[in-house]
Amino acid sequence: MRRSLSSPGLIRVLIVGLALVLARPAAALVVEEEFVLGPADAAPVLRILSTTDVSAARPFLEAFHNANPDLSIRYTVASTISAYEAIADEQLPFDLVISSAMDLQMKLANDGHARPIPHSAAIDAVPHTARWRDLIVGISVEPVVIVVRSGAFAQGKVPRTRRELIDRLREDPERFRGKVGTYDPATSGAGYLFASQDAAFGSTFWRLAEVIGRLDARLYCCSGAMINDLADGRLLVAYNLVGSYSRARAAEDPRLLVIEPEDFTLQLLRTALVPRSAANPDAALRMLEFLLSERGVTAINLVPGQSSVLSTPSGRPGASRTIRLDPGLLANLDRIRKDVFLRDWTAAMVQP
C-alpha cells in the first residue's frame, strides 16, 4: 500500500482512538473546539453543533450575542461525521446543527431527525435551491479550492485548471512525490461530498486521482491539517479544500496561493437544521432569523472566502457550480453506490 504515513494519518488514528474512549458508555462525539459566549451557567442556553471552525464562526456568533444578550451560547465544533452521528445515533440535545456536509444534513432530515422550520420573511427570502422541505436552510456559500505553496511551480506555470494541474504533476513527478494532499473520502464526510461532486461535474477527476495516487498522495481528515502542512512545507499542493479556511490563512501567509479552478469551481452550501432532540428550538430559530437578517449577512460576509446565501451571486465566477441541495445527495449516500465509489478511489490511490 503506497499511502504515505504522514502526520494526518497519525492524527486520524488518535481521533479514532479518542472516539472509542468517549463512546464508552456515553456519546461518541469528538469535540474539536468549544466556544462559549455569556455566563456558562446562564439560562436559556443556545447549543450549536457545527463543523465550522470557531475562527470562521466568531463574527456571526458575537454579532448574534450582542443582539441577544439574554442568551448564553455554547458553540461546539466537531467533524462532519461526528456531528452527524451525534444527532442520528445519540440524539444529543443540540439546538442547531450547522454543517458543510450537505449530504449528511439531508440524510438527518430525510430520516426524521429535523424539526420543520416555520415560514417567515427571512426564511422565505432564501433561494429555493438553498432550502429543502422546510427542514434545511442554507446560510452561506463558499468555493472548494486548490491551494499551492509559493514556489511549487515555475513562474507562469501555476495551474489554473484540473487538466493543467495533471500536466504539471506529470512533468516533474519526483518533485511532487509525497507532497500532494487531499481529503480522505473514506473518513471525512466533507471529503466524500467534494470528491463525489467533483466526479459528477467533470471528466478529469479520476485521471487526477490516478496521478496523485502514483505520487503517494497524503490523505487528510480536514482542510486545517492540509493548510498547516502547506505552510510548513510538507505539502506543495492541496486539492479540494474549504475556501473560507484557505482564504483566511492565505491572507496571513503570503506563501499560500488559493486557486479557484477555471474549468469549474464547486460552491459549497453551509446548511443549518434544528434537530428533533433540540432542548431550545426557539433559540435556534432566533439564530436562523438573525443569520438571514441584514446584520447576520454582514457578519457572514466578513469571513474571507464566504458569502451569505442572500448576497448577490454576481460576484461569483462564471465557472461556479453550486452543489445542489436535492435528493441526488441522498443517492450518493446509498451504501452500494458509496462502496463502489470508495473502491474505485482506493484503486486510484493504491497502485502497483
Report on this model:
With 352 residues, the chain is an alpha/beta fold. The chain has 2 domains: 7-141 and 269-315, Periplasmic binding protein-like II (D-Maltodextrin-Binding Protein, domain 2), CATH 3.40.190.10; 142-266 and 336-349, 3-Layer(aba) Sandwich (D-Maltodextrin-Binding Protein, domain 2), CATH 3.40.190.10. It is 42% helix and 19% strand. Strands 1, 2, 3, 4, 5, 6, 7, 8, 9, 10, 11, 12 and 13 form a 13-stranded mixed sheet that branches. Strand 2 (45-50), helix 2 (54-67) and strand 3 (72-77) form a beta-alpha-beta unit. Mean pLDDT is 86; it is low at 1-27.
Count, helices: 15
Q: Helix-strand pattern, N to C?
A: HEEHEHEHHEEHHEHHEHEHEEHHEEHH
**What is CATH's topology name of the largest domain?**
D-Maltodextrin-Binding Protein, domain 2
**Mean of residue pLDDT values:** 86
Strand count, sense and closure of the main sheet? Answer: 13 strands, mixed
Low-confidence stretches: 1-27
Structural class assignment: alpha/beta
Overall shape: globular
Rg over CA atoms: 20 Å
The name of the CATH architecture of the largest domain is: 3-Layer(aba) Sandwich
Give the arrangement of secondary structure elements:
Layout: H1 7-22, E1 33-37, E2 45-50, H2 54-67, E3 72-77, H3 80-88, E4 96-99, H4 102-110, H5 121-124, E5 131-132, E6 136-149, H6 162-171, H7 173-176, E7 180-183, H8 189-201, H9 205-214, E8 218-220, H10 223-232, E9 237-242, H11 243-252, E10 256-259, E11 265-273, H12 281-291, H13 294-301, E12 307-308, E13 320-322, H14 328-332, H15 335-349
Parallel strand pairs: 2-3, 2-4, 7-8, 7-9, 11-13
Antiparallel strand pairs: 1-3, 4-11, 5-6, 6-9, 6-10, 6-11, 6-12
Helix pairs in contact: 2-13, 6-9, 9-15
